[in-house]
Write a structure and sequence with these properties.
The complex is a heterotrimer of chains A (355), B (293) and C (332). Helix content of chain A is 34%, strand content 21%. Chain A is an alpha/beta fold. Classes of the chains: A alpha/beta (355), B mainly alpha (293), C alpha/beta (332).
Chain lengths: 355, 293, 332
């Protein structure tokens, strides 16, 4: 009974197959909207430490993801990008703020309602090997999601498993094997299959290829792209690699120490980055072309800790443009055309670069 | 269904590097052979033993080994060889039952403590600490003194303190496994806590559990024999090895010396304990990837 | 040209496992000139790290063994040295920094203590270059060199008080303290963030100028290679398949594998679409395919590729490739 839904969706998807990948235009409809999202973790430092400290992992983040688009979230380790992904899926509960999934406020959901949401949203992790239960065969790994949500049984289930197996580029003889018998790339395909059997609408890709080699990475990224257009998926792609983010995404959000500092369409961000941190990020990416040299930006200082973040703009201690005003909190403001930036000085910076 | 799961697990085990390492280990072979032989003997005791364990032969009291009585006879003319053969049943029963009781208390508590954390964890672990602080054998002696001797009472008496080790091990394992990404991945596909514990945490912590079981087996046999020897466990005339030692201790010297009567049950205990120790060590090494290759 | 600083010839390092012999490095030749930054690039399991460990004779044995070849360093074959002689070379003439700065420093000693150790051992005790009293000054000097802020105070701190980037710079300070003539950097920036990566790469380039040493960089990151190296060798399944100076290699790669590898990297500013990818998987190092090891995945595979193992041949000046498309030493 319930199984008819995915069936219909797959047919629809197959009909769409002829469309060129990557050209599917994202609609204006918002699938996910986040308002004032905060997540603070409590930490104890040292064994005898009496004082508890708050880690401001995610601190007042606002954005939305359109249906059918790939939203890229880029930033360095500890900037809170992974936490955002897990918050959206309800795998951790936020300290404050609202998360809307298809119009419903997830923060008001109870455990059982969140569990039902898992049918519509999945996640792919960075380390494929540790994201698969070593004691489960590929067959069990792929059937579990359908058993949990009672989507299909018996022959129907086997049919879906075989179809998904084909989609992710594995073979039926792999079904009886255990995760450790596969290479990293194949393990990631299994993990993708585990998400795909539920026919979800939204998938969080948390550094999906960071643990893989360049040539395998290309395979997986191509596969993810293909599946996105084929099954009408919406992705939140989390990565520290600007190359991957830029290649895959439609819109990009840049995070720094718990804050989103800039958000724009991919082309806009590449051509007209306003936040000094975004500019820095683009500048330090090693260019795979010895003819072009990296701009000689040598950055002083280290990424601040999220336990005691600097007041105001968190980038100001490292920022070449910093002024006294930067010690106050900047607004995340719209500069036009869906380009948002959290910087007091973006007007000056923008003028300076256009000169 | 359960059979399927077990065979699946064994299949996974067979292909793992642990099994390859295990197969090469000489201790594993010796230990496995001893344990297998003892289990076999216990099952087919009535076919292996030439005489009944309680069958007296008053004309052949306190004899040395002969073709009729391979290990001689005791003060009632009972065949020692046959009694030792039947004794394997007691040894194995004590071992298996004790481990079963200890594990069925300790494992769920440990899983719960590790998985839930917080107050539940605190409560269970303080209980474990308190239990581990108690001297096990003395508690067991007191228990038997209160409720009287007997096989089942000995097992309960020893389980009172023995479960704590299992709880502690399982908690540690659970904590380690809980940090793995596949546990979060399981939540992300909508698994319930109960299923996560039974299908994700438990199967992935089973290796050290098996090791602990094989390692506590000989201790259980020794403790139970000691209790019987003290006259608090299985009582004569049952052919329990400890009880046999108890009976024979009066015949170690004059006026009627029969030292072999003490020596044979002693050897039996040593061989079985050694067998399980070998097996336990080999399993522990095989499961520890740092000791491989 | 002057004599190269390091010359690796016909190096073969195999691992003897129960499953079979893993031919991790199976005939590798290259040289590094004085003051040069040489890059060894390839994917997991291509043998690049084993090559660097073989140079320092740090291969775990058993099961590993250097079965053939020569490693000529400053005119002497390192593979013929005694254990004691090798120990003296490591850390003084050849130093190595590893991928993960978090695990390569000992958490129970202060940073200063750890930098002082090789200085005391090699320069004070073995070579009598400086006296014991001078060691603290030298330690602070090294920390200054790698731009640790406030070195006089930070010298007594423990590694956990340092960030990842500072730890990696401390490692570099430790490794440079005895003025090595060759620094081997095995994935030096894989575990750190991009902004920190930029700092470390800049630092390494600057130190090369200042101290005049040669650097061997081992990485899978083509961006790091493009930014740092003078010459590059690409490894695949235990062999070098192409070697050239940096610009030539990136501009006109000759070996199909090099070509595919360069195409497969997602770059900033490219259109969304299909990335070029290499079909199939990295071959087994126990039973590699016959002939050219890349032929099952190669779009240009010919008959000869399946039968004969190609030799390195010079295609243009300074550019060598192991491929039959360019002769492949077929006549030899």
């Amino acid at each position: 009974m319930i199984s008819e839904v995915p069936e219909a969706k797959i047919k629809e998807a197959e009909a769409k197959e002829t469309a060129t990948p990557g050209e599917a235009k994202a609609s204006e409809e918002k699938l996910i909207e986040i308002k004032g999202l905060k997540k603070y973790f409590l930490t104890k430092r040292g064994i005898f430490a009496r004082e508890m400290k708050w880690v401001h992992a995610v601190d007042d983040v606002n954005f939305y993801i359109r249906k059918g688009e790939v939203f890229g979230l880029v930033g360095e380790s500890g900037c809170g990008k992974t936490t955002v992904g897990k918050l959206i899926l309800g795998l951790i509960r936020p300290t404050a703020g609202e998360i809307y999934f298809d119009g419903h406020n997830l923060t008001e959901y109870n455990v059982e309602e969140l569990r039902k949401l898992r049918k519509r949203a999945g996640i792919i992790y960075q380390h494929p090997q540790s994201s698969l239960n070593p004691r489960m065969t590929v067959h069990t790994t792929l059937s579990r999601p359908m058993e949990i949500h009672k989507i299909a049984e018996g022959g129907k289930k086997e049919e879906i498993i075989l179809r998904v197996l084909g989609e992710v580029g594995l073979k039926p003889q792999h079904l009886d094997r255990y995760p450790h018998e596969f290479s990293g790339g194949q393990q990631q395909r299994i993990a993708i299959g585990r998400v795909l059997v539920l026919n979800p609408e939204f998938v969080v890709l948390d550094e999906p290829t960071s643990a893989l080699d360049v040539s395998v990475q290309a395979h997986i990224l191509n596969l993810l792209n293909e599946l996105q257009s084929k099954f009408d998926l919406t992705y939140l792609l989390i990565s520290h690699d600007l190359g991957i983010i830029d290649h895959m995404s439609d819109r990009i959000g840049v995070m720094y120490v718990g804050k989103m500092v800039e958000l724009a369409d991919k082309e806009e961000l590449r051509k007209n980055a306003l936040h000094p941190y975004t500019r820095l990020l683009f500048a330090v990416v090693p260019i795979v072309d010895p003819e072009q040299t990296r701009k000689g930006v040598v950055l002083k200082g280290e990424v601040p800790s999220a336990i005691n973040p600097p007041p105001g703009c968190r980038f100001h201690p490292r920022c070449p443009y910093a002024k006294p005003i930067c010690k106050t909190e900047p607004k995340f403001e719209d500069v036009g055309g869906g380009h948002y930036v959290a910087c007091h000085l973006w007007r000056t910076i923008s003028k300076e670069s256009s000169r | 269904m359960l059979g399927n799961k077990i065979s699946g697990y064994l299949r996974g085990l067979r292909r793992s590097p642990a099994s390859r390492y295990f197969k090469r280990d000489i201790r594993a072979k010796v230990g496995f052979a001893i344990v297998l032989a003892v289990v076999f003997t216990a099952i087919f005791a009535s076919f292996v033993a030439p005489h009944g364990p309680l069958e007296p032969h008053y004309e052949d009291r306190l004899q040395g080994p002969s073709w009729k009585y391979l290990m001689g006879t005791d003060w009632m003319g009972r065949c020692l060889f046959s009694r030792i053969i039947y004794g394997t049943r007691y040894a194995l029963a004590v071992g298996f039952l004790l481990i079963a009781v200890q594990a069925s208390i300790g494992v769920p508590l440990g899983l719960l403590a590790g998985y839930k954390g917080g107050r539940v964890d605190n409560l269970i672990m303080r209980l474990v600490d308190a239990t581990l602080a108690m001297p096990g054998l003395i508690i067991a002696l007191a228990f038997v003194a209160l409720f009287g001797p007997g096989l089942y009472k000995v097992i309960i008496a020893l389980a009172i303190t023995g479960w704590a080790g299992y709880a502690r091990l399982m908690r540690g394992q659970t904590l380690a496994v809980k940090g793995e990404t596949y546990i979060e991945a399981a939540k992300a596909i909508g698994e319930k806590d109960r299923t996560i514990i039974s299908r994700y945490v438990l199967p992935n912590s089973i290796s050290p559990l098996i090791v602990l079981m094989t390692m506590t087996f000989p201790a259980a046999i020794l403790l139970a024999s000691a209790m019987s020897f003290l006259g608090l466990g299985v009582m004569p005339p049952e052919p329990e090895w400890g009880a046999m030692l108890n009976e024979s201790s009066r015949y170690l010297g004059d006026p009627m010396p029969a030292p072999l009567w003490s020596i044979f049950p002693g050897i039996a205990i040593i061989v079985l304990v050694l067998g399980f120790n070998f097996l336990g060590d080999a399993l522990r090494d095989a499961f520890d990837p740092r000791l491989r290759e | 040209m002057s004599e190269p600083l390091l010359k690796v010839q016909g190096l073969k390092t195999h691992f003897f496992l129960e499953r079979g012999v893993v031919k991790a490095v199976d005939g590798v030749d290259f040289e590094i000139k004085k003051g040069e930054i040489f890059g060894l690039v390839g994917e997991t399991g291509c043998g690049k790290s084993v090559t660097s460990l073989s140079i320092l004779r740090l291969i775990p044995s058993p099961p590993g063994k250097i079965v053939e070849g020569e490693v000529i360093f400053e005119g002497e074959n390192l593979l013929k040295k005694s254990k004691e002689e090798m120990r003296k070379i490591r850390g003084t003439k050849i130093s190595m920094i590893f991928q993960d700065p978090h695990t390569s420093l000992d958490p129970v000693f202060t940073v200063g203590h750890q930098i002082a150790e090789p200085i005391e051992l090699h320069q004070v005790i073995e070579q009598h270059l400086i006296s014991a009293e001078e060691v603290p000054r030298k330690v602070i000097e090294m920390l200054k060199l790698v731009r640790i802020p406030d070195p006089e105070h930070r010298v007594v701190e423990y590694p956990h008080m340092f960030s990842g980037g500072m730890k990696q710079r401390t490692m570099i300070a430790m490794m440079l303290s005895c003025n090595p003539s060759l620094l081997i950097a095995d994935e030096p920036t894989t575990a750190v963030d991009v902004t920190i990566q930029a700092q470390i790469l800049d630092l390494m380039r600057e130190l090369r100028q200042k101290l005049g040493m040669s650097i061997l960089i081992i990485t899978h990151n083509l961006g790091v290679i493009a930014e740092m190296c003078d010459r590059v060798a690409v490894m695949y399944a235990g062999n070098i398949v192409e070697q050239a100076d940096l610009k030539t290699l990136f501009k006109s790669p000759k070996h199909p594998y090099t070509h595919a590898l360069l195409e497969a990297v997602p770059k900033v500013g490219t259109k969304k679409g299909k990335l070029a990818s290499i079909p199939g998987m990295v071959p087994s190092l126990i039973t590699p395919p016959p002939g050219c090891k890349f032929h099952p995945r190669c779009p240009h595979a010919m008959d000869i590729c399946r039968k004969k193992f190609p030799q390195m041949s010079e295609i243009e000046k300074g550019q060598l490739a192991r491929c039959f498309l360019y002769g492949g030493g077929a006549k030899k």
